[in-house]
Amino acid sequence: MFTIHAQYRTKNGTGVSRRLRKADKLPAVIYGGKQNPFVIELDQNSIMNLQCKSDFYTTILNLIIEDIEIKVKVQAIQRHPFKPKLNHIDFIRII
C-alpha cells in the first residue's frame, strides 16, 4: 500500500494550477462517496516515482492530508503531451 502526503488547496482554476506545476506541484481532486469533492496539491517528483510502479494504478492508496487519512484509488491521470510530467490526477474515495 502506498502512502502519499498532500495539502489542501484553497484556490482552484487554470492559473492557479499552472503556478502549482511551475513550482513542481501536482494539482489533484478527490471525489466520490457522500462528501463533497475537494482539491489538493501533491509533490510532482514523489508521484512520478510512485506512478512508475504498476500497483499504483490498481491498489488502494493512503492519502494523508493534515493528519487525516483518506483511502483512494486513481481514477484518471492527465499527462503532459511531450514532457515526462503529470498535469492532473483524479482520485476516487474508497469508503
TrEMBL record:
**Single annotated GO MF:** 5S rRNA binding
| Keywords per UniProt | Ribonucleoprotein, Ribosomal protein, RNA-binding, rRNA-binding
GO BP field: translation
Per its UniProt record, what InterPro entries does this chain match? Rbsml_bL25/Gln-tRNA_synth_N, Ribosomal_bL25/Gln-tRNA_synth, Ribosomal_bL25_short, Ribosomal_L25_dom, Ribosomal_uL5_bac-type
Residue limits of the Large ribosomal subunit protein bL25 L25 domain?
4-91
Task: Tell me where on the tree of life, at the top rank, the source sits.
Answer: Bacteria
Q: What does this protein do?
A: This is one of the proteins that binds to the 5S RNA in the ribosome where it forms part of the central protuberance.
Would you tell me the protein name for this molecule? Answer: Large ribosomal subunit protein bL25
- Look up and give the organism this protein is from: Candidatus Erwinia haradaeae
Q: What is the lineage of its organism?
A: Bacteria, Pseudomonadati, Pseudomonadota, Gammaproteobacteria, Enterobacterales
